[in-house]
Amino acid sequence: MLDLVLGLIDRTKDRSLELLKEFLSIPSVSTKPEHAPDMQRCAEWLAAQFRSAGLEPQIMPTGGHPAVVARNQHKPGRPTILFYGHYDVQPPEPLEEWKSPPFQPQVRKDDEGFDAVTMRRIAQELETGPASLYAHVSNKDELAELMLDAVLADVLVPEPDPARWDEQVKDLVRDQIRVMAAHRGIARIAWDIAVPVTPNSLKQGEAMLALLRAGGLTLKQATFAGDALSLYAKAYAYEASGWTWGEIDQADAGERGQQMVAYMRSLPAESFPNMLQVGEFFSAETAAERLEFALEAFLAGLKVLAKN
After folding, report:
1. pTM here?
2. What's the rounded Cα separation, in Å, for the pair 179 and 61?
3. Is residue 189 within 8 Å of 238, Cβ to Cβ?
4. 154 φ/ψ angles, rounded to the nearest 5 degrees
């Protein structure tokens, strides 16, 4: 039964999207009197959709905007289910915050990346039914964690060397960032999963702890340091992935950058003598240098901590 339902959804996807666009194109702003005709038009549109679905709709006048009620033909012995919802929308202001006019729907999500991953799409690629996938994974979240685990399998786990443990730690962090940024959506998955417990995730965690312990840190110190390094690696990979895969709009980022520069230049130099000079250090060209500085500074502190 589930396969039949999901199959119907797939077959009618394009038509459903067009209907959704029609629905979203109606400016049914209930708080503005000038949109009263749009409220009526939206009610009529909904009634037509209910009618095409085999229901019996009514548009009922009220003291304000019309209500739309649709009923099916009740059959004895079957339960009655009530669905309730609003068909009006909030005022769209401020309009300058919109990337496109509010009542001209656009589909912006591309066909690739993690957002496009669904159980149905995977089932289609495997030439099987979606229901069969649930015998292996319970939902998309579990699938995402397994995807992260598969990517982490490409990270080499070094044998701890007390003579160069600090360089090994930096290599491990760099490698983790590299594999997460190389696969679209993986860094986001890594960020969303607070404590991954899949085989390769655990293997990476154990490797980091072993390296830090080889440097002389206690288990508690190594645990805290490993957690901080993991957070930094995920955050760095998340940002790098956004630029690499176009998830950060370069035009928008450039415009915001210009606005920031203009604003900073308007500030009194005597109040922000340092902040007004740091702009040159934040660019794509300095990204790798900033990563290396962070790792070097963090490891330098750990070395001091390990000696005390």
Report:
1. 0.62
2. 59
3. no
4. -85, -5
H-helix or E-strand containing 67? Answer: strand 67-71
CA angle 236-242-245, nearest 5°?
A: 130
Nearest to 112, CA basis, from 203, 51, 184: 184
Residues 148/198, Cβ–Cβ less than 8 Å:
yes
> What is the per-residue pLDDT for 150?
93
Cα separation, 131 vs 3, whole angstroms: 6
Closest CA to 302 of 228, 206, 207: 228
The residue with tokens 């149905």 is 120
User: Do the Cβ atoms of 130 and 3 come closer than 8 Å?
Assistant: yes
- pLDDT tens column, 148-195: 999 999 999 999 999 999 999 999 999 999 999 998 889 999 999 988
Residues linked to residue 67 through DSSP beta bridges, in sequence order = 60
The residues, any chain, with a CB within 8 Å of residue 42's CB and separated by 6 or more, are: 23, 26, 28, 87, 88
Give the model's confidence band at 112: pLDDT under 50 very low, under 70 low, under 90 confident, else very high.
low
Query: Roughly what angle, to the nearest 10 degrees, separates helices 36-52 and 13-24?
Result: 160
> What are the chain's domains?
2-108 (3.40.630.10), 154-307 (1.10.357.10)
* Tokens standing for residue 130: 């979606």
Residue 29 DSSP label: B
Which of these, 194, 192, 221, lies nearest to 208 by C-alpha position? 221
What is the widest separation between alpha-carbon atoms in the chain?
A: 82
Helix, strand, or coil (residue 140): helix
Instruction: Report d(CA 139, CA 119) in Å as an integer.
Output: 8
Do 196 and 149 touch, CB atoms closer than 8 A? yes
Nearest-CA neighbor of 188 among 247, 109, 107, 251? 247
Which stretches does DSSP call E strand in 135-285?
Answer: none
